[in-house]
């Protein structure tokens, strides 16, 4: 598999409605799409950055700089027998995981297409369908949130994730429990709290939550160990896990009981698979978090979720949850039982619609061997 050409697109898409977390409100998405060309096929990857360095340190601008100056020179004109070789080649570039993931994802898609197999099969996945949850941003009006939850439960979503922040946490969760009973409910704090909030987490511990995601600092595993030791509710680590070694250390310390594997955050599908295998060995369940992806990123998330230890419903909601129109066809859809069918077509299994890709492209950069 020789990489003959790479195209990098800077994209801008507007979501249907604003999405608020503890660190920002987002509606306009600035991100990158990578196209990797072989002799006969094109592979697509998505760089799941935003315009702001608030979730992680990367932005669309910094990711483009790393891809342009360092990553493309490592792959353009090069022969690869397997995409895992890309992960190893990129190891000399420290962090910048979302940039790495985007280029590697395009090469994984290209590899699967050249093999004539679905990306899920190339990764070793066997599921024919995946189970889906929904992630809901912070709402000023709790009644609006309750109405949204009711609607999503009727649609079939199997897990409800609520973003929380100080002042919008325990009372909101209590109201949800009172209204909907023992639904699969979790809280995502996006690093908004500290160990001083232990009394608050003790209250949450009484609500039978599926998990509390990343309650403490974005780079911490020590204080999370202290918090987990005080709670029955599983702590799920997200921002703290950037690599196999991060996951290994967190598991050894007892810092969590669940890990959220985001392909972009950990640097690509190869690293995500390694973390999955490690967690499976230690009986730590995993799930696939979302980064407000377009259909290209969602297709990669579907593929990785077919691995067996992804036993908790992920955030890979249908295209229509976020977009008036997606850049793939068919758009990703969910049945009324909360399942998305895994495509049996080669690669990501969806066609990228070129006129829509061009419609949302701000800038395009072409690299040839």
Structure described in brief:
By secondary structure, the chain is α/β, with parallel strands linked by helices.
Topology record:
Blueprint: E1 5-20, E2 25-37, E3 42-47, H1 60-75, H2 84-89, H3 97-115, H4 119-123, E4 129-131, E5 134-136, H5 142-155, E6 160-163, H6 170-180, E7 185-188, H7 198-204, E8 212-213, H8 222-230, E9 235-237, H9 244-253, E10 258-260, H10 263-266, H11 269-281, E11 286-287, H12 295-305, E12 328-329, E13 339-341, E14 351-352, H13 354-359, E15 361-368
Parallel strand pairs: 5-6, 6-7, 7-8, 8-9, 9-10, 10-11
Antiparallel strand pairs: 1-2, 1-15, 2-3, 4-13, 12-14
Helix pairs in contact: 1-3, 9-11
Characterize the structure shown.
The chain is α/β, with parallel strands linked by helices and 369 residues long. It has two domains: 5-117 and 350-368, Enolase-like, domain 1, CATH 3.30.390; 122-341, Enolase-like C-terminal domain (TIM Barrel, Alpha-Beta Barrel), CATH 3.20.20.120. It has 13 helices and 15 strands. It has helices at residues 60-75, 84-89, 97-115, 119-123, 142-155, 170-180, 198-204, 222-230, 244-253, 263-266, 269-281, 295-305, 354-359; strands at 5-20, 25-37, 42-47, 129-131, 134-136, 160-163, 185-188, 212-213, 235-237, 258-260, 286-287, 328-329, 339-341, 351-352, 361-368. Strands 5-6-7-8-9-10-11 form a seven-stranded parallel beta sheet. Strands 3-2-1-15 form a four-stranded antiparallel beta sheet, with helices on both faces. Strand 2 (25-37) and strand 3 form a beta hairpin. Helix 1 crosses helix 3 and helix 9 packs parallel to helix 11 (269-281). It starts with a strand and ends with a strand.
């Amino acid at each position: 598999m020789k990489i003959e050409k790479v195209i990098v697109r800077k994209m801008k898409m507007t979501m249907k409605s604003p999405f608020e977390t503890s660190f920002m409100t987002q509606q306009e998405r600035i991100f990158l799409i990578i196209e990797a060309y072989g002799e006969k096929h094109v592979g697509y990857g998505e760089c799941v950055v935003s315009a702001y360095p608030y979730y992680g340190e990367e932005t669309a601008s910094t990711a483009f700089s790393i891809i342009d100056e360092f990553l493309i020179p490592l792959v353009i004109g090069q022969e690869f027998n397997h995409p895992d070789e890309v992960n190893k080649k990129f190891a000399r570039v420290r962090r910048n995981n979302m940039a790495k993931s985007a280029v590697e994802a395009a090469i994984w898609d290209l590899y699967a297409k050249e093999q004539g197999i679905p990306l899920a099969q190339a990764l070793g996945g066997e599921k024919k369908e995946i189970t889906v949850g929904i992630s809901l941003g912070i709402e000023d009006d709790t009644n609006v949130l309750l109405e949204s939850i009711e609607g999503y439960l009727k649609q079939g979503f199997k897990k409800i994730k609520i973003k929380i922040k100080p002042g919008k946490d325990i009372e909101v969760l209590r109201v949800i429990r009172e209204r909907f009973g023992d639904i699969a409910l979790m809280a995502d704090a996006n690093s908004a709290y500290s160990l001083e909030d232990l009394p608050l987490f003790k209250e949450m511990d009484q609500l039978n939550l599926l998990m509390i995601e990343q309650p403490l600092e974005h780079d911490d595993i020590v204080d999370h160990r202290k918090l987990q030791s005080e709670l029955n509710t599983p702590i799920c680590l997200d921002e703290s896990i950037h690599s196999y070694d991060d996951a290994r250390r967190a598991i050894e310390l007892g810092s969590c009981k669940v890990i959220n594997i985001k392909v972009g955050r950990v640097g690509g599908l190869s690293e995500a698979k390694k973390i999955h295998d490690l967690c499976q060995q230690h009986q730590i369940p995993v799930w696939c978090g979302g980064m407000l992806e377009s259909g290209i990123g969602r297709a990669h998330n579907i593929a990785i979720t077919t691995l067996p230890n992804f036993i908790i419903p992920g955030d890979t909601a249908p295209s229509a949850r976020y977009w008036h129109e997606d850049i793939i066809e068919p758009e990703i859809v969910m049945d009324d039982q909360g399942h998305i069918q895994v495509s049996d077509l080669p690669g990501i299994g969806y066609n990228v619609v070129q006129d829509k890709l061009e419609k949302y492209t701000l800038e395009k950069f072409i690299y040839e061997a």
